[in-house]
Design brief:
The protein is of the alpha/beta class and about 270 residues long. About 30% of the residues lie in helices and about 15% in strands. It has helices spanning about 5, 25-40, 55-65, 80-85, 90-95, 175-185, 195-200, 215-220, 250-260, and strands at about 15-20, 45-50, 70, 125-130, 130-135, 150, 165-170, 205, 215, 230-235. Strands 3-2-1-4-7-6-8 form a 7-stranded mixed beta sheet, sandwiched between helices. A 3-stranded mixed beta sheet has the order 5-10-9.
Length: about 270
């Protein structure tokens, strides 16, 4: 039996679902905008937010009002040693982020909770980090196989061999989830779920980069940015709701775009970096 089904706010409405994870009020804000953007595309897939007990009812209420299915998700049953190694200070000390700044509300250990997607009661799921924004219909992703993800390209074209786990396609399966738990223990995963999933699925299918367009590409690889093709904008590192962050001036057009969705204004896609 799927434990996720037992703790859901309502029954499923489709066999396919877009899923995100919320672990605090900041990511709840991001998830609200993500869900608004998905609704705007006219998708008929179910919309799901997995959330921990750290998220308050006040943060969940706006998601509930959007018709989102809320699914309570606990941290994985991993050892104290594993959890300690992947705590924020320990992980960032052992494997510091040098390309951008992770916000203070980011907790690396929480990233592994997204693996509970494999316990959900759907045939196919598309996972999207709560700091993503969907600007065109992406229902076509459900036709991709498990495991599909876009490359982690935001600095150099040489990075096409690396996977970014902010958007991926998966087929829920309890056996797969149990296999994941067995593989996780006894290892240090430098980039948490991202490093783990690339090893779990070494033959991962590469999605077009437009299905996970990382915001730093706007700065570093502007020739790749084509709004006619971009489907998903991913605000990796600094978040668009953080005031005055270090890259705010460079990323202002993308930040303004996110706020347009938050405020239910007609989005105006910037045409040049």
């Amino acid at each position: 039996m799927h434990t996720a089904r037992q703790s859901a706010s309502r029954p499923i409405r489709a066999t396919r679902a877009f899923v995100t994870l919320v672990t605090n009020s900041d990511f709840a804000r991001g998830a609200r905008v993500l869900m608004k953007s998905l609704i705007r595309t006219g998708t008929r897939a179910d919309l799901v937010v997995m959330h921990t007990d750290a998220v308050t009812e006040a943060d969940l209420a706006p998601l509930r009002a959007l018709g989102v299915r809320l699914v309570r998700a606990e941290h994985l049953p991993l050892s104290a040693a594993f959890n300690a190694a992947h705590a924020r200070d320990r992980l960032h000390g052992a494997a510091p982020f040098t390309k951008g700044t992770k916000p203070a509300f980011h907790t690396p250990l929480d990233n592994f909770i997204k693996l509970r997607l494999w316990q959900l009661d759907y045939d196919t799921c598309v996972f999207l980090d709560s700091d993503t924004l969907v600007v065109q219909n992406i229902d076509r992703l459900f036709d991709y196989p498990q495991f599909s993800a876009a490359p982690n390209v935001y600095e150099s074209l040489a990075d096409f061999h690396r996977m970014n786990s902010g958007v991926f396609v998966a087929s829920p399966c309890e056996r797969t989830f149990r296999d994941m738990l067995d593989r996780l223990e006894g290892r240090f995963w430098k980039r948490t779920d991202q490093t783990f999933l690339q090893e779990m699925f070494p033959d991962w299918h590469g999605l077009p980069i437009f299905y996970n367009m990382l915001q730093y590409s706007w700065i570093n690889l502007p020739d790749l940015w084509d709004w006619d093709h971009v489907k998903i904008v991913h605000y990796q590192y600094e978040k668009p709701w953080e005031k005055g962050h270090a890259r705010a001036q460079q990323l202002r057009p993308l930040i303004d775009l996110w706020h347009a969705y938050e405020q239910d204004r007609a989005p105006n896609l910037p045409r040049a970096a």
